[in-house]
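Weekly modeling sync, notes
Attendees: AB, CL, MP (scribe)

Item 1: holo prediction request
CL wants a bound-state model with 4-nitrophenyl phosphate before deciding which constructs to order. AB pointed out that an apo prediction alone won't tell us much about the pocket. Agreed to run with the ligand included and paste results into these notes for async review.

Input as submitted:
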Amino acid sequence: MVQVLFVCLGNICRSPMAEGVFRHLVADAGLAAQIAADSAGTGAWHVGQPPDERAQAITAQRGIDIAMQRARQVAPMDFSTFDYVLAMDGDNLRTLMGAAPTAARTRIRLILDYGDTNATDVPDPYYGGPAGFDQVFDLVHDAAVGLLRHIRKNDL
Ligand code: 4NP
């Protein structure tokens, strides 16, 4: 099983969307038994909460249901469980690198490393309007497609 963890700050906006989109692509490809996805936040403010209503709405519009997901904080064991630990932005990346054992750092990357655009960060949409969530969806969808291509080529 290839294990992928998506990480943002609160685990209620960006990383739950990335998890939902990626899991949807994996299921469509018939690879659900070989690739698992999860998400977590570097912060603990929203632990136990479902994804932000705006994140749920934008993914539901695209036929992806993330309502059952619940926020959790990144835990030390994640650095041994997951093959890919993918940060939404540079801040999350630095937090993860600081928390991970040295040997695990090679598994930590920016999610947009797998995307086709030049963007490096998925912008935090929490304090903005609905357009920010559209942008998050497009960025994480593009990266999720690239990530699945990468895993099929390298890990399966
Ligand atoms: P996320 O968005 O990191 O994409 O889940 C945020 C959600 C909550 C907060 C910040 C970002 N917050 O400060 O509570």
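Recorded for review: The mean pLDDT is 98.
Action items: CL to compare against the apo run; MP to circulate these notes.
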